[in-house]
Amino acid sequence: TSKTEVLQLRMEAKDPGEPGVALFCLKRLACCLKVSDYSYRASAQVLSTQSRCCEVRGADLRSLHRHIGMYLADCMMDSLPELFVTQSAINHVQGNKVEGVVAAGEGITVLAMMRGGEPLASGLCDRFREAMLVHCNDGEDTPQIAVQGRVVIVADSVVNTGTSLDQVLKGLRGKGCRFVCVAVGVLQRNKANMIEEGCYLGLAAEGVAVFALRVSDNSYKGRGGTDTGHRLFNTVQLEGER
Questions:
Q1: Dihedral angle of Cα 191, 197, 203, 206, to the nearest 10 degrees
Q2: Which of 1, 177, 207, 210 has the CA that lies 20 to 30 A from 60?
Q3: Is the CB of residue 137 less than 8 Å from the CB of residue 170?
Q4: Using an 8 Å Cβ cutoff, are 180 and 203 in contact?
Q5: How many CA atoms lie within 13 A of 100 on its CB side?
Q6: What is the pLDDT of residues 15-74, one digit of tens each?
Q7: Are 152 and 177 in contact (CB under 8 A)?
């Protein structure tokens, strides 16, 4: 598929201004790698500002990350409705049955990268209520039965160099994932560029998409009180402990 054809496919999407790519485009390309960065949205800026506030930590920060997970789930439904929404008959308040649209759940697996990705993953599952939630340290510890033929969402709070994310995604290769999404609060720009250049090509049968609340030019790696995991779980005192 040529670049001209890709542009044409994007132009045919319902909302070409959206950062997401239509599912049929992903299928045509087998893996049209696109990083959707929502930092241009005021609603995303409100969430990301709160997440960087040093006074927000512990239970408050976990709750915020859960809301970020729900926000990114909504973005997925807007960008890839063929994967993340489904029609369903509902009992209308007027007493008759009508067709409605609900969030998908069956056939979705959310992989929470431990430990920082767990609150965000919980927010994803609040939206995709029938999704399977699996905790993982790397893709090798993820059972094939949990991902084969399924839409897999890998959730993490921050992706800086991407080393941990790469390990998880490498472990998913050959396990038969239908589609892989990455949902992340903050994605470092160099890693975003690498993703769009094709570092995850061939990972899943129908494609890969990345949804980031914010893409950052700051490659700073947190330590102690600035480490996201410590801030989430109030464990800064354990820094350096084994």
A1: 120
A2: 210
A3: no
A4: yes
A5: 11
A6: 444 444 444 444 443 444 678 999 999 999 999 999 888 888 888 898 999 999 999 999
A7: yes
| pLDDT digit string, tens, across residues 124-154 | 999 999 999 999 887 778 889 999 999 999 9
Full-prediction pTM beyond 0.70?
A: yes
Query: In the sheet where 208-216 sits, what is the strand order?
Result: 34-37, 208-216, 179-188, 151-159, 108-113, 132-136
Within 8 A by CB and 6+ apart from 204, the residues are: 31, 152, 172, 177, 178, 179, 180
For helices 42-51 and 59-79, what crossing angle results, to 10°?
Answer: 150
Which of these ranges, 128-137, 207-216, 222-231, has the smallest mean pLDDT?
222-231
> CA 37, CA 211: separation in Å to the nearest integer?
6
Q: 105 or 30, which is more confident? A: 105
